[in-house]
Task: inverse folding
């Protein structure tokens, strides 16, 4: 059943991403002054757990710990708050799949994840972990020694752009909180625990390293390392930590990589990698030896190829949800009384019944976009003040002249008689130049009504044209636009339909905000003999075979180059939405490259 967008405070919940035993996660949209919009992931406690002090305490711990972390491989927390007695976290939205979903899809297709992808992803996990492990309190500079304690495929996100993000610090611990759990209580997913964690012993950052090693083993071999018929037997296997050679399941694993995996999975923490940075360093060094040109773009192509059809459907659903969400009125006024100072996440301590009855919202500092909008407002007000001042001085000057000539009427008559017709500004047939037109507009604007035009789109990053002149990219504020005159607005973004509107601005602040409509996506397979480097619209996308490459609907230029035989071929193909297209040596006719 399709999810219907709904309001939750200042957020619009667009789609439900996941629902667990104690919380649910939504893709949400937040809206603010001037048409500001942002897509976030919103995690909120299920109503049945809203009255549980232990779970709320864990939820707040996650907010306090993760909000302090800032790293490209850790999902960023934007806000923690409470709406209608329900606690929530607003965080960075990652458009992609978690590693468990990727492993499940490769199992369905009976495909191995290529070794370089495994190494790259786990290397990025190590980078995020290293940042958390080494994090220091910003106030006192004290090392917090954060331990994640729940490293598992479900808590690793891979975006369609190839980004790798670590999530869910819900049961993380700092050294000040103690690394040992309560007696008889085990937290974390059993199959990904370290031996010391499975025994309920004190743990440190090396426990996270062991868990990451389990993930690398599973990715390389398509085998669960500690699978069993029940949790008790799983824990026993982990405590024994008898690790088979990964090459036993996948003979393509190089010896050097197998050594790295087995070092991360040493039963004795002293024999493991001592830091996530050391683990990352060895993985990066190995990746550089087998594929020095590997980047996140390769991971992006791989993930997209696994979920090509789902991605097309997902984008359609998101677009439909955004259209429905545009009907909600949640935008705050542009000029509102500043709120009282908000409570910082670091000041949250305990949750009491009294503070649950009051709706609160603890926010991170303003975004760059919000500061930019405030600055535009100030500049706009200063320009208006200057125009009023110039107009006032002009009136005073004219009044003085009138008084002077009123006292000396003969001089006024003589001045009029002495006036000559001014010479023409341009000779007949001469076209005036337009350089300096903006200065002319500014002079003419004195005393006239002008507007601050704000233009935004979903998604952002679209080119904005006013009267066929490029102004910048969305989100964009364009000051000093004349009121009650027609403006031709064009908005262009690759892969989306162009928006063309005629605007007549009739208020000091004019907002134009529209979702972009996708042109549609088709898939392209390319095979060549001999194997060749493929360029689509002048951009290199890798060597053939190219499988299930996503392209926007329309005509695309394809070029194939084989440097070994000094050959190249070019063609064009029209991609139709939601269709699979094929190119092979019959379509790409190779010719010698002209020197």
Result:
């Amino acid at each position: 059943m399709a999810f219907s967008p709904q309001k939750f405070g200042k957020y619009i919940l667009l789609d439900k991403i996941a629902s667990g035993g104690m919380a649910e996660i939504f893709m949400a949209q937040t809206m603010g002054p001037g048409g500001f919009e942002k897509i976030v992931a919103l995690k909120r406690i299920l109503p049945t757990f809203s009255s549980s002090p232990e779970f709320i305490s864990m939820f707040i711990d996650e907010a306090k710990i993760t909000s302090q972390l800032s790293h490209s491989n850790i999902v960023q927390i934007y806000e923690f708050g409470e709406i209608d007695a329900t606690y929530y976290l607003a965080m960075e939205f990652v458009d992609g799949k978690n590693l468990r979903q990727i492993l499940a899809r490769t199992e369905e297709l009976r495909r191995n994840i290529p070794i370089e992808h495994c190494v790259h992803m786990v290397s990025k996990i190590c980078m995020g972990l290293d940042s958390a492990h080494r994090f220091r309190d910003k106030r006192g500079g004290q090392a917090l020694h954060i331990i994640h304690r729940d490293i598992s495929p479900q808590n690793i996100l891979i975006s369609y752009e190839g980004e790798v993000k670590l999530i869910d610090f819900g049961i993380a611990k700092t050294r000040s909180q103690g690394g040992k759990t309560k007696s008889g209580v085990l937290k974390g997913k059993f199959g990904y625990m370290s031996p010391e964690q499975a025994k309920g012993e004190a743990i440190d950052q090396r426990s996270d390293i062991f868990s990451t090693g389990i993930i690398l083993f599973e990715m390389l071999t398509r085998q669960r390392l500690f699978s069993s018929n029940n949790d008790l037997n799983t824990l026993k296997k982990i405590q024994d930590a008898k690790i088979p050679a990964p090459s036993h399941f996948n003979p393509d694993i190089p010896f050097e990589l197998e050594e790295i995996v087995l070092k991360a999975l040493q039963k004795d923490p002293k024999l493991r990698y001592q830091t996530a940075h050391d683990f990352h360093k060895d993985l990066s060094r190995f990746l550089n030896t087998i594929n020095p040109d590997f980047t996140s773009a390769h991971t992006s192509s791989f993930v997209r190829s696994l979920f090509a059809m789902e991605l097309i459907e997902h984008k359609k659903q998101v677009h439909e949800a955004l259209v429905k969400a545009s009907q909600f009125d949640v935008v705050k006024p542009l000029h509102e009384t500043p709120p009282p100072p908000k409570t910082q996440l670091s000041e949250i301590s305990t949750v009491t019944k009294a503070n649950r009855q009051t709706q609160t919202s603890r926010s991170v500092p303003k975004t760059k976009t919000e500061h930019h909008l405030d600055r535009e407002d100030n500049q706009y007000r200063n320009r208006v003040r200057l125009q009023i001042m110039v107009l006032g001085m002009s009136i005073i000057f004219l009044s003085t002249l009138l008084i002077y000539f009123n006292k000396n009427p003969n001089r006024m008559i003589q001045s009029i008689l002495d006036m000559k017709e001014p010479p023409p500004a341009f000779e007949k047939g001469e076209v005036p130049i337009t350089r300096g037109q903006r200065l002319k507009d500014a002079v003419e604007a004195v005393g006239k009504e002008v507007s601050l035009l704000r233009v935004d789109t979903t998604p952002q990053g679209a080119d904005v044209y006013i009267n066929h002149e490029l102004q910048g990219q969305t989100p964009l504020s364009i000051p000093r636009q004349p009121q009650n005159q027609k403006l031709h607005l064009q908005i262009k973004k690759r892969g989306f339909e162009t928006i063309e509107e005629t605007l007549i601005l009739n208020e000091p602040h004019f907002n134009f905000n529209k979702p972009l409509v996708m042109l549609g996506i088709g898939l392209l397979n390319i095979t060549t003999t001999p194997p060749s480097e493929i360029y689509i619209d002048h951009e290199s996308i890798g060597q053939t075979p190219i499988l299930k490459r996503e392209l926007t609907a329309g005509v695309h230029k394809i070029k194939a180059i084989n440097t070994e035989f000094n050959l190249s071929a070019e063609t064009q193909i029209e991609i139709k939405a939601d269709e699979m297209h094929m190119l092979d040596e019959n379509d790409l006719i190779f010719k010698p490259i002209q020197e």
Residues 368-407 form the longest helix (40 residues). The longest strand covers residues 11-19.
